[in-house]
Specification:
Shape: rod-shaped
Mean pLDDT: 84
Strand content: under 5%
Structural class: mainly alpha
Order of helices and strands: HH
Number of helices: 2
């Protein structure tokens, strides 16, 4: 059968010859059958598309919900980490403050000890100077004592010489 030629279709010729319908009605009936078949195919495809769309929608909603849960979970995780980091920083600040306080007191002690050491060094220098003067005075006293002993020895000799002469 080629094209829309009714003369090649035996069933259409039979309907026309029996007087059931005219060639125009047969063509119209055939067109309606074709249109109906196409419409049914389109309805079937539309139903399948709608079913697939519903399935895809369900999958999308599940995925969207999963993504929302993942985002919420991620946000909770970030907030938890942020809180931990804040607490850690707070701990570090407190530890640094305590350490700075200790170091401040140690520096004050060191400054005080340096001042005391400087005072002791001055006292030690004064004591050494006094000791040196004392040793020098002792040495002078020993020298004076030796000179006095020498003078006494001379005097004793002179006295003995005078006694011998007298």
């Amino acid at each position: 059968m080629q094209g829309d030629d009714i003369s090649n279709d035996p069933s259409a010729c039979r309907d026309i010859l029996r007087g059931l319908s005219t060639p125009f009605e047969v063509l119209r009936a055939r067109g309606n059958v074709r249109l109906r078949a196409e419409a049914e195919a389109l309805v079937k495809a539309t139903r399948e598309g709608a079913e697939q769309l519903e399935k895809d929608k369900d999958v999308f909603e599940k995925l969207k919900q999963t993504e929302a849960w993942a985002a919420t979970s991620g946000l909770k995780h970030v907030r938890t980490l942020s809180k931990l980091l804040f607490d850690e920083r707070k701990g570090w600040r407190e530890a640094c403050a305590r350490e700075n306080e200790k170091l401040f007191h140690v520096r004050q002690e060191l400054t005080n000890l340096k001042a005391m050491n400087a005072a002791l060094m001055k006292e030690n220098a004064a004591a050494e100077a006094a000791t040196k003067e004392e040793k020098e005075a002792e040495a002078r006293g020993a020298k004076v004592l030796e000179e006095a002993d020498a003078d006494r020895s001379k005097l004793n000799k002179t006295v003995e010489n005078l006694k011998v002469e007298v």
